[in-house]
Amino acid sequence: MKPAMLVLMCVSLVPCVVADTANEPDIGQITLELHSPRVFAFNTATVASQRGLSGSVRLFGIEADGSRTLLCEANTGWSATIDMRFYANAGTRALVAEARTADGQEARVAVRLPQGFQRLAGDEAAARLSALEFPSWRRGAGAMHPSSLVPDTAPDALAAYAMSRLFVSAKNLAPLLVLALWSAIVMAAPVRRRLAEAAKPAEAAKLAEAAKLAEAARLAEAAKPGRAAALVAVAALSISIVVGAMAVPHTWLYSIRVPSSNDAASAPLRYDAVTTAGMAWNEVSWQAGNAAPGGLHFVLVDAARTAGLPLSALDRYRRIRFRTTPTIVMSESGTAMLVPVALMAWGVE
Amino acid sequence: MTRATVAGQAAIAMPLWLAALFFTYLPPGTAHPMLMALGPLGWAAFMVIATGSDDAVTAYAMALPFSAYAAVAFAAAPYAILAAVWTGAAASAATALLAGGSMSAGAAGRVRYAAALLAGWVPGCAAAMAAGPWSGVAVALLTVLAGLYARARRMR
Questions:
Q1: Are A155 and A278 found together in one domain?
Q2: Which chain A residues are within 8 Å of B120, Cβ to Cβ?
Q3: Cα–Cα distance for residue pair A244/A118, rounded to 1 Å
Q4: Domain boundary residue among A247, A276, A309?
Q5: Claim to verify: residue A209 and residue A81 sit in the same structural domain
Q6: Looking at beta carbons, which residues of chain B come within 8 Å of A247?
Q7: How far apart are CA A90 and CA A126, in angstroms?
Q8: Residues of chain B with pLDDT under 50
Q9: Which residues constitute the domain of residue A23?
Q10: A12 has pLDDT over 80
């Protein structure tokens, strides 16, 4: 090989290597260990330092074009090692961990993903997931019907139908009803006050006649505007707390199974919604009556403005491919949560 | 100086309720949570000052649950803390008004009223943004106590 050609090859390889490690040299004394990462799956990486880790520990994925994506974030008071969960898509080339050691030094380490990590050939589930398309984000409105006749059960058509008709975002109107009731009560207050004022002289005369001076004094005290206003303020605070508690958004996990060739099902196919309410999230699973469990699912995580979705909610998916790479937040107790956003995914049980 | 009427209370409540309904059906993230939480209380303050109503407490009482709803329904988690901040700040404003007594006639009275409102409201919110939500609630409560103390001294 000619020297000029060799130089040209080396120069052309440089951007790939730079992109793989984010063009950032390792600094400080931390290590990043990967535990057999798999594409389209949640994996675990261990960040460790002999000096100890303190504060925020962040794990980034480096794509082929050198762009960074925050995969996982954890906070610790002091810890020698932290297990961080991360989702790996087919475009991830390397991981970068950034942390601060317990003595306050910034530290960073980059690790390239193993050879063959991105190779989908021979991995049937991953290859199938990578070929699927995602529908648009447009979602249906109105009330969710418990049963629906799906006209086309091809994966792409089924996903589009699910987004527009089945994964309906339920509106919580209960707080608005309470607010309407509260408004009506407060609006009626001037009428009630006028009625009370009209009745007061007669009542006071009656009390004076009966010489119930103590009772009259008590009534006079109760009629002071400050006390009435305080009562109104307490009522308003109570209603505020009730309305606030009712308006808390819930995390919803929607899924629908794509019928396989073994199901002997033909479109149109009737699906029924199975709703499960939990403490951390609610789930709506659309199932066809004669379908066997497992197989390919289209999934929607609706966790916007909530505390997020525990990763354990997606444990049943052996492989899962998200439309956008999700960020995971690790709690002090080691619980992994998906950040509170809406996510679309294809999953294989 | 006017007293609260059914029409006056409806003028405060109906726009708030319609706005709450409207924003509930907008896509998530469209409504700015801070503006949504401040809006109802600001609307109540505007209506009280504009109409010269003496019954400011009822106007705030009307608006406060709407603010709490907006803080929880449109803000990102942890919404409970945000709701606590706004609720504490609003309670401070309402109680500061109580401590200041009713509005006297004329423009000077309205200015004094607006000043009392800001005195109860702004410090709690500013502290919440600068030093965290619980600091905001603490400052709001201190403002309430200061207002009550001032009122007690005046009544001696």
A1: yes
A2: none
A3: 46
A4: A247
A5: no
A6: 68-69, 72-73
A7: 9
A8: 1
A9: 3-112
A10: no
Residue A104: predicted pLDDT: 85
Structural domain including B126 reads 6-155
Which of A172, A240, A307 is facing B64, going by the closest CB pair?
A240
A130 and A33 share one domain: no
DSSP symbols for B31-90: S-HHHHHHHHHHHHHHHHHHHTBS-HHHHHHHHHHHHHHHHHHHSPSSHHHHHHHHHHHH
Query: What is the average pLDDT score of chain A?
Result: 80
- Measured CA to CA, the distance from residue B142 to residue A132 in angstroms comes to 59
- CA–CA gap between residue B20 and residue B143 (Å, rounded): 29
Q: Is the peptide bond before A15 cis (omega within 30 degrees of 0)?
A: no
Q: What is the pLDDT of residue A136?
A: 85
> CB B89: neighbour CB atoms within 10 A?
29
Lowest mean pLDDT among A83-97, A294-308, B138-152: B138-152
Mark whether A101 and A141 lie in a shared domain. no
What CATH number did the domain enclosing A84 receive? 2.60.40.2470
Task: For residue A179, give the nearest of B25, B29, B66 by CB distance.
Answer: B66
Q: Which two tokens stand for residue A97?
A: 């961990």
Please report residues of B whose CB lies closer than 8 A to that of A307: 77-78
CB atoms within 10 A of CB B59: 27
User: Which pLDDT band, with edges at 50, 70 and 90, does A7 fall under?
Assistant: very low
Mean pLDDT, range A190-205, rounded to an integer: 65
B 101-140 near A (Cβ less than 8 A): 102
Say which amino acid occupies A263.
D
What DSSP element (H or E) covers A34? strand A31-34
Cβ neighbours of B78 in A, within 8 Å: 307
In a domain, A256, yes or no: yes
Residue B84 CB contacts under 8 Å (≥ 6 apart), including other chains = B133, B134, B137
Contacts of A1 (CB under 8 A, 6+ apart): none
Q: Does residue A26 fall inside a structural domain? A: yes
Residue B9 to residue A173, Cβ atoms within 8 A: no
Matching residue, tokens 């309670």:
B91
Check residue A11 and give its pLDDT.
40
Cis ω on the peptide bond leading into residue A268 (within 30° of 0)?
yes
Is B104 inside a domain boundary? yes
Q: Which residues contact A149 (CB under 8 A, 6 or more apart)?
A: A268, A269, A270, A271
ipTM of the modeled complex = 0.75
Among the ranges given (A44-53, A287-296, A335-344, B53-62), the one the predictor scored with the smallest mean pLDDT: A287-296
The per-residue pLDDT for B151 is 67
Can you say whether residue A264 is alpha, beta or left, with left for phi > 0 and alpha for psi between -120 and 50 degrees? left
For chain B, what is the domain count? 1
- How is residue A101 annotated by DSSP? B
Q: Please tell me whether residues A128 and A55 are part of one structural domain.
A: no
Of B8, B24, B72, which has the smallest distance from its Cβ to A244's Cβ?
B72
